[in-house]
Amino acid sequence: MEKTLQLAMEAKDYIVEMRRYFHSHPEASEHEINTCRKVCEELEKMGLEPKVVCASNTGVMCEIKGKGPGKTIALRADMDALSVQELNDVPYRSTTDGLMHACGHDAHTATLLGAAKILTACRNDFNGTVRLLFQPAEETAYGAKAMVEAGCLDGVDATMGTHVNSGMKAGTFSVEAGPRLAAANWFKYRFVGKPGHGALPHQGIDAGLAACAGALDLQHLVSREFPADKALVITIGRIEAGTRFNVIAAAATLEGTVRCFDPEIFKAVPGAMERVLRGVADAYRCELVVEKAEAVTMPCYNPEKSSARGKATVLKLFGEEGIGFSPAQMGGEDYSFMMDRIPDSLYVSVGTANPEKGTDEPHHSGRFNVDEDALPGASAVYAQYAIDYLNE
Predict the structure, then answer these.
(1) What gap in Å lies between CA 254 and CA 245, rounded to an integer?
(2) Which residues contact 104 (CB under 8 A, 6 or more apart)?
(3) How far apart are CA 346 and CA 335, in angstroms?
(4) What pLDDT digit, counting tens, does each position of 213-238 carry?
(5) Domain end: 294, 319, 351, which one?
(6) Are 45 and 155 found together in one domain?
(7) Considering only Cβ atoms within 10 Å of each terminal Cβ, which end of the chain, N or C, has fewer?
(8) Cα–Cα nearest to 314, from 384, 363, 379, 372
């Protein structure tokens, strides 16, 4: 058994304890004050010197030096919870009503702390530096950019991040090359018309009707303007119009998200959407106001070299049984901003699905949970990948 995996198994109780602590005490994005404090306390117990970073004062950066000089690799974990009511009946259920770790960030934080224990014990096995990044506010796409702006990637040569996956067998790891997660934006357009009586619509300008037409016309972009072999999703998640049943809507709002893997298409879509919606607004005698059309995440894309290194790490620790598969998904992840900044980066999906334990519920569900038996392996992959990279 590899030293890192042996140390991870010895630290299993600690990793599970940390995960349950963070699960019981979830904190919202940009408000991870107690989580940040707990992470710093645990790192200090290991003899390390963590530093609080980001304008929100809820990010943590900490370095572990090897036996000699060398490269620097950053290992990243996110820490924020979601506005979801927990439905699990477990001893460590959320103690905060309406807030829950429904996406596994508690597991990410705990497994990176486990990796810190392993790497501290393995300092004589590598040259260079491992930089630990405990990131706030992934769910609002604030944290990764904030840590980059705080200088957390200055001098870094490579990065690696993980995310638990409730759709993949517990104990397996997906490190495929190519697109992993999509670029995502958040758009909000407002049609401005003129109020009137519902019985006399010609006296008003119906913004609600314009918004309905706009929502339909946007789908033509997917089917007719962009290549059919390039995945693209335009979702209208919210339509708001009107004040009562017999009044012409003077204003209407369309709000939603764009998802795709191709960066060039991602850049082109907002302009095409605005062109279509302005045409609709003109046709219905409305004014169009662009309230929001901003990128939330970039694509997560694993380079061939990083993927091959990750596969070698998984094989070293677990053999072929450790290799899992996760198809590219339209979900977004703000770790993409770190991957965009440092090309030699790897996004790893950590399988935690075990139907017998009920850990195959979807992410962002009130019944989401993880198979804790898979967590030591995730800590070992963090540590072993860093060591393998630094010793290349």
Answers:
(1) 19
(2) 163, 164, 166, 352, 363, 368, 370
(3) 10
(4) 999 999 999 999 999 999 999 999 99
(5) 294
(6) yes
(7) C
(8) 384
Supply the Cα-derived Rg of the chain in whole angstroms. Answer: 23
Half-sphere exposure of 290 (CA within 13 A, CB side): 13
User: Residue 94 and residue 88: Cα distance in Å, rounded?
Assistant: 9
The strand pairing partners of 346, in sequence order, are 160
Query: Positive or negative CA dihedral for 161, 164, 165, 171?
Result: positive
Tokens of 160: 């690696």
CA angle 136, 139, 143 (to 5 degrees): 35
Percent of the chain at pLDDT above 90? Answer: 99
Q: In terms of C-beta density within 10 A (0-12 exposed, 13-18 middle, 19 or more buried), how is residue 320 classed?
A: exposed
Edge-first strand order for the sheet with 183-192 is 232-241, 251-260, 183-192, 287-297
Residue count of the chain: 392
The reported pLDDT for the residue numbered 1 is 87
Q: Tell me how far apart the alpha carbons of residues 261 and 232 are, in angstroms, rounded to a whole number.
A: 8
The secondary structure element, H or E, covering residue 306 is helix 304-318
pLDDT by residue (tens digit) across 110-155? 999 999 999 999 999 999 999 999 999 999 999 999 999 999 999 9
Position of tokens 């303007």?
A: 225
Determine phi and psi for 4, rounding to 5 degrees.
-65, -40
Does residue 314 sit in the same domain as residue 232?
Answer: no
**C-alpha closest to that of 153 among 177, 176, 129:** 129
| Domain interval for residue 217 | 183-294
What token pair was written down for 250?
Answer: 């003077």
- Say if residue 57 is in the same domain as residue 114: yes
Integer Cα distance of 278 and 80 in angstroms: 38
> For residue 76, which phi and psi values (nearest 5 degrees)?
-115, 140
Q: Are residues 240 and 91 in the same domain?
A: no
The CB-side HSE value for 381 (13 A sphere, CA atoms) comes to 34
171: left (phi over 0), alpha (psi -120 to 50) or beta: left
- The CA-based angle 40-386-80, given to 5 degrees, is 40
DSSP SS3 for 324: coil
| Residue that the structure tokens 């697109």 belong to | 179
Q: Which of the 8 DSSP states describes residue 319?
A: G
- DSSP strands (E only) in 9-58: 51-53
